[in-house]
UniProtKB/TrEMBL annotation:
Database matches in PANTHER family: NEPHROCYSTIN-3, TETRATRICOPEPTIDE REPEAT PROTEIN (AFU_ORTHOLOGUE AFUA_6G03870)
Organism, as annotated: Ditylum brightwellii
Keyword Repeat: yes
Protein name as catalogued: Kinesin light chain
UniProt KW keywords: Repeat, TPR repeat
InterPro entries for this protein: TPR-like_helical_dom_sf (IPR011990), TPR_rpt (IPR019734)
Residue windows of the TPR repeats: 16-49, 141-174, 183-216
Amino acid sequence: MRIQVALIGHHHPDVATTLNNIGRQYVLDDKFDDALLCYEDALRIRCEKLGNDSLDYAATALNAGQILHQKREHDKALNLYFKFLRIVRAKFTNNHYVTDVLRSIAEIYKEKNFFDKAIAFYEESLESTKVVLGEYNSEVALIFARIGNIHFEQGNLDAALQAYSSGLRVERHLLHPDHPNIIMALTIIGEIYMQKSGWDDAARIYNEVLELQHSTFGVEHEDISSTLDAHGYWRQQNLERMRQAITTDDLMDTCVSNSALPTPVNKDHFSSSLPIELVSSAPEIFIEGTKVIAKT
C-alpha cells in the first residue's frame, strides 16, 4: 500500500478500497482492533472523496459497525448501522443486507434492554426477509424464535407462543419431521403451555415430542428423560384437577375445610428447564457483511 500511496496520495478512493480489503483480512485473522482502524480510515476517505451517500461509504460503514457491535460499543455501532440503512434504502427497495442490519439493530436494542424497540426491529426485519427470501426460509424461522425469546423472557406467554408457533410452522415446511430444531421448538411450546396451565395442550405437545425423540435418539437418551419429567408433571397436575373437582363437589355436601384443597400450581416449576440463549447476531453476518457492495 505504501507504493500506492506514494503514487496517488493517501486520500485517493483506491487507497480506501485497499484499506477496506486489508480490514477484511484482519477480520478473518480475528484482529478486530486493526480491522477497525483500517475501516475508519477508509470511511474518512470515502466520505471526503465520494460523499456520505455513496454505496462504497455504506459498505465500509457496515464493516466498521459490525466490529463495533462485536466490541459491544453499541451506540457507535447503531450510528453506523443507521447510516448504512439510510443510504441503501434510498437506492434499493429491498436488500438481503438490509434485513441483516435490521436484525443486528434489534439485537443491540435487546442487549441494551430496550425490548419494545428490539421487537419492532425484529418484526421489520421479518417482513423484509419474507420479501427478499420468501416466507418459508430458515432466517424467517430464526427471527420468529428471537421474537419469541424476548416475549418469553418478559413473561408475555401468549405473544411468545404465537411467535414460536409461527416459527415452528416455517420449520415444519423446511425440515424433516424429526429434525432437532422441530423437537426443540415443540419442547419450548410445551413448556409455555405448562406455564399457562394448559395441561391438555401441553400433554398433546409432549406426546409428539416423545414420539419424535424415540424415533430419533432411541429410548435411553437424556432428552427423553427430561420430556418424561415434564409429562409426569402434567399427569400430576391433571390428577390435582380431578381431585379439586371432587373436593369441590364434596364441599357442597360436607363443608370440607378449604385446607383440603390442593396447593396452587407453581407456574415457575419448569422455568429453568429450557434455558433459551440469545446470541448476538453480529458474528453471524460479520464475514458476510464485509462483502456488501464494497469494491474489490
